[in-house]
Amino acid sequence: MKGKKQNVIDYSFEMQQRRQKRINTALALLPGIFIFLTLFLNLVLFPIHIKSDTMEDSLSKGGIAFVCPLMKNPERGDLFFISRMDGRKNSFAKAAIDSLVRFFTLQKISPFSESDKISGQPFVRRVMALPGDSVYMKDFVLYVKPASKDLYLTEFELADKNYNVQIFSIPAEWNNVGVSGELAERTLGEGEYFVLADNRVECLDSRQWGPVKSGRLMGRVLLQYFPFNNIKAY
Question: What pLDDT score does 126 carry?
């Protein structure tokens, strides 16, 4: 019959005190670590889950990217995370619960921020024109005249970032299917940004919603870190 094994800590009051002190210290640190991570992930850098293919090939559907909410001054070609367009806002309690759930699920579940409507979802779009710019679109390509210039240039000539857009021909019999590749000339007002999806045929953007106000820009997308075989910095 085997005897019960004894631990030296069971006989040392001093060691028991040290162990209890370590446990108490760890328990005291956990709330602080959680609060720090929550504040950091909401105010400095937070992850988002990419649920659609609207920004392929830049952002992979099912991928996870980091957004910096401190960066809210876009340049042409920047990817930005934009708040829902339906104007709905959660109460403080719902916003806090939603933040906790998103924290523990790596932004994959958002019980009080999700909606079946496209306008009820936050989304990533590429900023193509800035306040004061004039724009028009032809054959799905945006032409931009910067506020200080006299001539129109294509979006690709003005953007500092390299990116691809998805454009494909729609059969003639598919009337009113997809998003129009034509847009009449318009000038952006103060605090207005013209944003587009890289998938120009199947996705909604400023062509339908109009320019996005600066207050809807939640932060710049800096890095896609998942999937690990497709890590990209922007």
Answer: 96
Count of residues making up the chain: 234
User: Residue 203: which of 164, 166, 159, 161 has the closest Cα?
Assistant: 166
Q: How far is CA 71 from CA 47, 118, 148, 194, in A?
A: 15, 25, 24, 17
Say whether pLDDT at 146 is over 80.
yes
Q: What pLDDT score was predicted for residue 1?
A: 47
Residue 230 pLDDT exceeds 90: no
Contact 136, 188 (CB under 8 A): no
Q: Judging by beta carbons within 10 Å of its beta carbon (0-12, 13-18, 19+), is residue 68 exposed, middle or buried?
A: middle
Residue 9 is classified by DSSP as: G
* Distance, CA of 158 to CA of 49 (rounded, Å): 29
CA dist 152 → 77, 157, 169 (Å): 16, 10, 25
State how far the Cα of 234 lies from the Cα of 218, in Å rounded to an integer: 16
pLDDT at 155 over 90: yes
100: left (phi over 0), alpha (psi -120 to 50) or beta: alpha
